[in-house]
Design goal:
By secondary structure, this protein is of the alpha/beta class. The chain folds into two domains: 15-153 and 326-360, Medium-chain alcohol dehydrogenases, catalytic domain (Quinone Oxidoreductase, Chain A, domain 1, Alpha-Beta Complex), CATH 3.90.180; 169-302, Rossmann fold (3-Layer(aba) Sandwich), CATH 3.40.50. The protein is 25% helix and 26% strand. The protein contains eleven helices and 19 strands. The strands form five sheets. Strands 3, 4, 5, 10, 11, 18 and 19 form a seven-stranded mixed beta sheet that branches. It has a six-stranded parallel beta sheet with strand order 14-13-12-15-16-17. A two-stranded antiparallel ribbon has the order 1-2. α8 (291-294) links the parallel β16 (270-278) and β17 (299-302). α3 (160-179) crosses α4 (197-206) and α3 packs across α9 (308-321).
Length: 361
């Protein structure tokens, strides 16, 4: 099946990928990318991670996607073609995250928060807003075209497979720790030890925080958390553990939670004047008494991935401190098996799909 003709499509080439069809079962599909503009690069994809957001989009948890739609926003590959402004980058191994364009001039862009720009473009289920048109498609594919300003050179000491999850899970957990000044003298908690949480523990440990507390409902994560750098483990199902840890953490990153999560109990782990940073997206509205915030000057804030500089800083930090995601690799040709593996909660802790280009990388 091919997309219908549109003036913003380059009909001289066809990219192929695995597209959503309204069910978790993805199907092969081809599309024409937008014409290669002066600021665009074309990337031959070698690796793409599978994020929980991809799963939510595929299953319709965030609303129905138009059909067909290619997801995937933890993309790594090699630049094989480029517009006039990025010819010197052909041959580079690069990564692409969730945001692939922004206006560059607004208050958020000048503050290096391009991910908050009202004219930003996401890597899939979106359109480019630069006046040249074109729909965006993600990394469950053989190639992708995006703006060169939003691709990041992969440090040489990070493998391409390990680099993929850094483009989302990595920067999503790194950014709030930087923004809220994690480091010596701070106690950091991480709720949920999974694809995001296992990265957050490593960052906090490398930032030399006084305490790095892993908080999980699965006691099986206890030993793995210590290997990642946690100094303490709390079983969130154990009332004694929760009582002993009350009001003890300056910053808590909330990366995952049960559908019936006791938000008041989780917020009670935050120290006076501390912050709960919400990284995961609850599917239902939160219900918390206002007094939980007012009487202890506690705040709950959100954090969305990171801007261009933050992403570059994160990659440099990972390279310098030898921080890597724990990954399992699977062939992209078995995309549906890989998605099923993630949906069943089996990975420790991230699945990265490899294309045929991975062999040549």
């Amino acid at each position: 099946m091919m997309s219908t003709f549109k003036p913003s499509e380059d009909h001289s080439v066809t990219f192929t990928g695995w597209a959503s069809t309204g069910t978790p079962n993805l199907k092969p599909w081809g599309y024409h990318p937008r014409p290669l503009g002066p600021k665009d690069v074309e990337i031959e994809i070698s690796h793409c991670g599978i994020c929980g957001t991809d799963i939510h989009c595929i299953t319709g948890a965030f609303g129905a996607l138009p059909e067909p739609e290619i997801v995937g926003h933890e993309i790594v590959g090699k630049i094989v073609a480029a517009g006039a402004e990025f010819q010197n980058r052909i041959g580079e191994h690069v990564g692409v995250g969730a945001v692939v364009d922004a206006c560059g001039d607004c208050k958020d862009c000048t503050a290096r928060n391009e991910q908050l720009c009202s004219k930003k473009s996401f890597i899939f289920n979106d359109t480019f807003k630069d006046g040249h048109g074109g729909k965006t498609y993600g990394g469950f594919a053989d190639r992708v075209r995006v703006h060169g300003d939003f691709v990041y050179k992969i440090p040489e000491n990070i493998s391409l497979a390990e680099a993929a999850p850094l483009l989302c899970a990595g920067v999503t957990t790194f950014a709030p720790l930087i923004q809220h000044q994690a480091g010596p003298g701070k106690s950091i908690g991480v709720i949920g030890i999974g694809g995001l949480g296992h990265m957050a523990i490593q960052w906090a440990a490398a930032m030399k925080c006084d305490e790095v507390v892993a908080i999980s409902s699965s006691d099986s994560k206890r030993e793995e958390s210590k290997k990642l750098g946690a100094t303490k483990f709390i079983d969130s199902k154990n009332p004694e553990d929760m009582k002993a840890a009350a009001q003890s953490m300056d910053i808590i990153l909330c990366t995952s939670f049960a559908k019936d999560a006791d938000w008041a109990a989780l917020l009670n782990l935050v120290a006076n004047n501390g912050k709960m940073v919400l990284l995961g997206l609850p599917e239902a509205p939160l219900s918390i008494e206002a007094g939980a915030f007012v009487f202890r000057q506690v705040s709950m804030v959100g954090s969305l991935i990171g801007g261009k500089k933050m992403t570059g800083d994160m990659l440099d930090f990972a390279a310098k401190h030898n921080i890597r995601p724990w990954i399992e690799t699977m062939p992209m040709s078995d995309c549906n098996a890989a998605v099923k593996h993630v949906m069943e909660g089996r990975p420790r802790y991230r699945v990265v799909m490899e294309t045929g280009a991975a062999v040549r990388a």
